[in-house]
Request: fold
Amino acid sequence: MLTDAWLWTGLVILLAASGVIVSLLSREGRERTWTLVILGCAALLGPLEQAHLHTAASLNKHVGHGVWFAAIAAGYAIDRFVAAAPEGRMRAITCGACVVALLFPATLGISQSRTFSSDWPNASSLISVLRPLVSHGNGRLLVEDPSIAEYYLKAGDDWQRWSSTRNIVTPSGKSTGGPSQAAGVVGPGNVGEFTVFILKHYFSIIALNYADTTTLDLKITAEMKADPHYHLLRVINYGPAPGTYLIWQYQP
Reply:
C-alpha cells in the first residue's frame, strides 16, 4: 500500500518536503514553515491509515484527499525555485522548465482519473430489473455490491433492508457475519453465518455476481439450489467476465 501511494504521489511529497526546507533555510518564520509541514504531512495520512487497516480498497481515493494539501506546499517550492532565477530570460526558461516537468504527473493524473471514473460496468439493466422487485414490500435484500442499487432505487432509503456479501444487516440495524479481522474490512462474510440466514429464509431477494466474494457466492448458491423456495429469476449481463448478475427470489 505504501509502495502504491508513493508511486502515485511521491513527486508531490518530494516537492512539498523541498518547500519545507526552502522555508526553513530562508528563515521566513516558524508559522509558514509549520504550515508547510502540516500541508505536506497530510499526504501521509491516507496511506498510513490504509496500512493500519490492512486493506488497499479505495486507496486511490483516500490518497487523493491528502495530496491536495501537499500540492499547496509543492506549489510553494516551485514558486520559490522560479523566483530564485534571475529576472528576464533565465527566469522565463526556468518557469518553462517547471511547466514541462509537471506535464508528466499531469498526464498521469488525467489518465488515472479517466480510468477510475469510467472503468465500470453499465448498471442500467441491473437497476431496471431490481426496481420492481424491491419497490413492493419490505423484504430483506442481499446484493453482492449493493451501493449502486441503493443509490438509484427509492428502496435504498430503507438501508436496514440491504445486506452485502460482506455483512448482514439485522432488523435492529446492527451488522453480523462480517469478515474475519485477518481478511480486512472488504473481505467476504462468514460462510457459516450466511448459511444460517439463508436456511432461515431471511432474504427475499438475492443478487450475486461471483466476482468479489466468489467462494461465499458459490456456497450461497448451493444452499439456494437445495431449497425449493428459492428460484432463479434473471441472469443479467453486467460488465466483463464473469459478467453476470444472478437474481434469486424467495417464494414460499
